[in-house]
Amino acid sequence: MLHTANLNQDRHDQLRRLSEQVAALEASLRAQHDLLRQRGMALPAGLLDQLYYVRNDLDTLSGRVIDEATELDQLRALAETIKLINSSLNLDEVLTEVMDTAIGLTGAERGYIMLRDPETHEMHFRVARSAERTDLDEERFTVSQTIVNEVAQTGKPVVARNALLDSRYSAQHSIVMHAPRSVLCVPLEVKGRIIGVVYADNRRVPDLFGGQELALLMGFANQAAVAIENARLFNRVRRALLEITEMKQLMDNVFASIASGVITTDLNHAILTFNTAAERILGIPQDQAVGKPLESVLPTVFEGFDALLQAVHQENRQQVVELEPVLAGRGPVNLSLKLAPLQDAEGVTYGMALVVDDLTEIKKRDATLNVVRTYLPPSLVRNIQSIDGLGLGGDEREISVVFADVRGFTSFSEQIPPEDVMTIINRYLTSSTEAIQLFDGIIDKYMGDAVVGLFNTQLNPQTDHAERAVRAALTMAYDVRALHEVLAPDLRLHYGIGVDTGMAMLGNVGSPSRKEFTALGAPINFAKLLQDNALPGEIIISENTLQCVRDLFEVEPLQPRKVKGQFEFQVMYRVTGVKRRA
Q: CA 51 to CA 272: how far, in whole Å?
């Protein structure tokens, strides 16, 4: 392009020198014209006129060379710019290059581009540039909205040679305030759709834009519109791809975080997907499962399993089954499988989905609850999560023991039929059991007509166990008196109750095939001794228990009635009531 520009300049210089030489020859001949006539000589007819016309033709030709060279340079610059904007898919870069080229091609002072929103179809400002290739502030770029709307609606360009004198626009506020002289506005059109406009103006020079600038900018705008549309399409595709990628990542995260194992297969039982939970449950890495037959990760464990798979594929029926396979590295496990057909939007089955739930821990927890349910009330059973954490193998801790025995039961049982004996004693045992469980105590054992309740074991940890034990004893005594109101006088019995607090060893005792949870130690023995000292209806507590509940209950000291080798047993306390709070 530089070589062509130099060549055009050389031609222009040659024509200019030739024109100057013709002008000099013409001037010389005119100066000699009168002298030649005096000597009887004359110039050929019309020679001077011919030289005049030759000189004018040379000047015209020189101007045309310059104009054509300029136009050629513009076209070449236009071609390079079109090539550049069509090579970019960045919309902002394309818009900036389009506007800078439009200003350069037309000699405008400034320009801007508006694009139509594909969804709302409204025109929005996108870029404004100056002749110095700098960005302009939209708020300071006041233009004629009438011109822009006219071009956007009709698709026809507008050329205002002097907007201040043009009757179509001279009354517009923006024209009056901004006072642009020359205005040029052309549509950006793609496949018959107006996607925007290119606006350019000059505030100083009138008649700047003519047919050549219009034709040049229209051709450029047609190519630029395609480049802009391509860039917008690329941006939409990129956004859609980004959304799809984000959605896939979200689905992958959701898929990976599901607690249940999720496996999908094709119609030939080849594994398509295998989530993190399936890896954990089955002990097989994902990369060793995907693409492999289902049987390689989930061996058939019963004869009807293949028929179950066929029912899912052929009959499109969901199936649920529990399995107890032996897995490598885990041993026996309990699994729940939910099998369902994998279908597309048209309902065509192209595979199967399996949801695998590991029930092993749940089964173990159920076993735990079955063990402790015989000891605890339902409110405490719900809190047990794992039998391994209970310390049932042996744990030394401070506990409170309630030992209650029915007075006069032996003579009572000899006076009524055996079947009535069991009915009556169970009513008393039920009353005492409910009183102990009301304060979250556990039943250690029943010994004929006696019951033993424990507080603050591994199964029912409590900081206020002594208080709970005494309150349970009081409730037991109250409930027995209430029971007497509905029983015949000859069926009325009384409890003697003893309560002690101290250190004991708690855990399971027995053989491998039969175990019981119990407490071993001084509090059990001493609570029984206190119970032996209690008269019918009395609640006797030890010194240790009194130290824990002194501020809560009314007591009176008593000398022991029986000691049974407990030579240090000097005092015991009868509970007479609950202290009133101040």
A: 93
